[in-house]
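Students often ask what a holo structure prediction actually looks like on paper. The answer is less mysterious than it sounds. You provide the chain, you provide the ligand, and the output is a string of discrete structure tokens encoding the 3D arrangement of the protein together with NDP.
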Amino acid sequence: MSRDGDVTLTLGEAEALARSVLERQGLAPDHAAAVARTMAAGERDGCASHGLYRLLVAANSIAKGVVVPDAVPVLSEPAVALVRVDGGGGFAQLPFEQGKPLLVEKARRFGIAALALNNVVHFAALWPEVEALAGEGLAALAFTPSHAWVAPEGGTKPVFGTNPIAFGWPRPGKPPFVFDFATSAVARGEIELHRRAGKPIPPDWGYDDAGNPSTDPVAVLNGAMRTFGGHKGSALAAMVELIAGPLIGDMTSAESIAADQGRMGSPIGGELVIAIDPSGFLGAGLEDHLRRAEAMFEAIEGQGARLPSARRYAARVRSETEGVRIPAQLHRDISALLKA
Ligand code: NDP
Ligand code: PYC
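The corresponding structure tokens follow.
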């Protein structure tokens, strides 16, 4: 169905379309199912830069041999509270799904546990992972480097990836408090969507390759993006490089883009996920202390400010009844992959 140049899909149709396209490109069925769930969830929650648009990106990564389409994740326990899943060069979604149960078990047993995903290809938002852990009653953090596209504050040459940080906090009887954002001024996917729509970008998102601020998405994609919040975002981007790169024995964003060898694939490397069981510190005081957290959320919302994820949760409710709308051109580009 087409309206205002958009195509409307039910959530079931969106996920089935993603799965068919991925399998058609040669992705093994278990990976295709996990990746399709994540893309459909992104579209459902109004995260267009990490929704069905990512099918075009994933198809390129598969076609260019950036991703191993039938990788078999291998799980290990480097220490009592640590889980590692070596993704074998496949997409990150299946390794996360396979590592999560042991991460949750260890967080409950030791109070805190960490999961390293190694040797994975990452195209996705991080909120699905921290939201799933918060749904298990855990506080959670997730980090991943990407490709070196972002200049440090004070410079104009790429060093960092867009390096997202996500956090989830469990809320009894309510959807979890979740934020998830790039440490760049904006996710690169957002600039790519501006390029596809032929729209200029704000001048503080990045530089052209001569180091001048630019509103041309193509110039910034070929130049350097900026961090958010000046030196603060720059330091956080460096932290993500360190704790989800060398700390877990995986690539930095500079190493990832070098390994890509110009194929324009999704970043290759690692992700660090930390899970903390609040009852580890709080024991019988858990409920009282979670109530104190609720007082903070009420103080935010009570003055008309919104919580991160409120927009996403509202989009989810809408999408469940109305389905999702994607630009007709994107639908044509995705449909063409079914014939490729
Ligand atoms: P945004 O700048 O849009 O920020 C997103 C976060 O901020 C969300 O949690 C959002 O909640 C919240 N937020 C936005 N506006 C407000 C507001 N006014 N009040 C309170 N909270 C607000 O996202 P980015 O462009 O930085 O990143 C988008 C996505 O890209 C992320 O999901 C990230 O994981 C992904 N990404 C993935 C990478 C990878 O390598 N895998 C690399 C870089 C980014 P809400 O959603 O409800 O609006
Ligand atoms: O939008 O910056 C981004 C991004 C990088 C990898 C996946 N998404």
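The longest strand covers residues 112-121.
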